[in-house]
Amino acid sequence: MIRGGRVLFPDGTTRITDVVIRDGRIAGIGEDATVIGDEEIIDAHDQLVMPGLVDTHRHMWLGSLAASSSDVTLFSYAQQINEGHGGPFTSEDVYAGVLWGAVQAISAGVTTVADWAHNLGSEADIDANLRALHDSGIRARLYFGGKAGSSGDQSRYEAQARHLHATHAPYRVHGRIALGLAVRGPAMATPAENDFDFGLARDLGLPISLHAGMAGLPGAVDQLGSQDLLGPDVNYVHANEFTEREWKQVAESGGTVSATPSVDMTMGLGIHPAVGAALDHGVTVGLGADTVAYGPSDLFTEMRLALAAERSRTNARLIDQGQMPGELRHSHLAMLDLATRGGAQVLGFADQIGEITVGRQADLIMLDLSAPHLDSFDNPVLAAFLSAGPRDVDTVIVGGRILKRRGTLTDGLLQKARLEVRRSRARIRGRSL
User: Fold this and answer.
1) What is the DSSP letter of 189?
2) Is 58 helix (H, G, I), strand (E, B) or coil?
């Protein structure tokens, strides 16, 4: 039982009440929070209880390479990080990177990730990635992307994808780890390769994710539309520079978008994140941190940047005319919704996570409101939106399992992951000498 916390409800309101978790799910709230007598009690006084954050696009293997790149554009970044450091990765490095990436996410209140795994060159790498996700306790959709490289060689992609599809069943603990395919897309593949990649995903019954709509790489949706490959199973990452025609095609086909505001804007992938355009066209959109090698690891930062960027975009015309806008587009609750329910919808988990409702998986986080920077006059949710960060995440629960408590990761996860990543970094640095 989570007792006496200020609980955030799906309508955006909060009230102080209790939440009971049983068998990994939310079993009762408030008056329905009946107890049997043997519940563990978590005192949530002066804490905000909210749904766990859902990251819809993160390259988890890059956890070990955090803060290793900056001030370079996409293709220089890919050469430096994906190929320079990632090319020689062993399966041990994959395990360490993904496990440390999960620690970064969990610490920041992210309970679910879309792991866009594009550094898996062997079945051993695949198994290491799965094992790391499983061992961390995080919820995930693993989008398998093979081994990224400038050569575009995908000769083993099909065999490995089928291996993953056939062998991942042991890791589906309460459905915590699901699969998808990360495909190259028109920016990096020929029409024939698009047909093959999309056909493979649909033959396996797996959702699809691709990078699309980045500056200098236009026409991805138009190309897929001409090949009759669009559909509700397709997730478009970035989408900064979609044309009006492309947005209409995405909306009509039921596709979804993952916006990564920090990387989108600082790496030069677009002038602004795709959040506003997606919402304007009725396209389901979620937020992602993308790569911790280049940007921050938490979604609080992404929410704030998304709101600032969207208001800047919509206010620009009036400001250019010397006028002050009379109203503002979107709200902090709308951005918070993208990082919870929106993310759950993008990943196909809408009926499982994303809100505090009886019957949902118990994926919850608790923020310590006692810190001065999270004090509010009468709006703790707004205070959290404006000022919260990873250090304010007191408790993280995934499927009823406590992964972080009183600001510390449980079950020795931090110590284990830190040891693994230190060993991996020593190997990576040794290869770079």
Assistant:
1) S
2) strand
Ranges under pLDDT 70 in the chain:
149-155, 169-174, 432-433
Contact in structure between 251 and 283 (CB atoms under 8 Å): yes
351 to 87, 178, 312, 345: CA distances (angstroms): 38, 14, 34, 8
**Which of helix, strand or coil describes residue 266?**
helix
CB atoms within 10 A of CB 155: 8
Task: Encode pLDDT of 385-415 as tens digits.
Answer: 999 999 999 999 999 999 999 999 999 999 9
Give Cα separations from 394 to 16, 44, 302, 398 (angstroms). 17, 10, 20, 14
3-state DSSP assignment of residue 57: strand
Q: What pLDDT does residue 150 have?
A: 44
Q: Which two structure tokens, joined as six digits, stand for 215? A: 């500056």
CA dist., res. 280 & res. 256, Å (int) = 13
Q: Which helix (H) or strand (E) holds 385?
A: helix 380-387
Q: What are 48's strand-pairing partners?
A: 6, 367
Written as one letter, the residue type at 153 is D
Read off the pLDDT of residues 178-222 as tens digits, 9 standing for 90 and up: 999 999 999 999 999 999 999 999 999 999 999 999 999 999 999
**So what's the pLDDT on residue 39?**
79
Please give the structure tokens belonging to residue 412.
């020795």
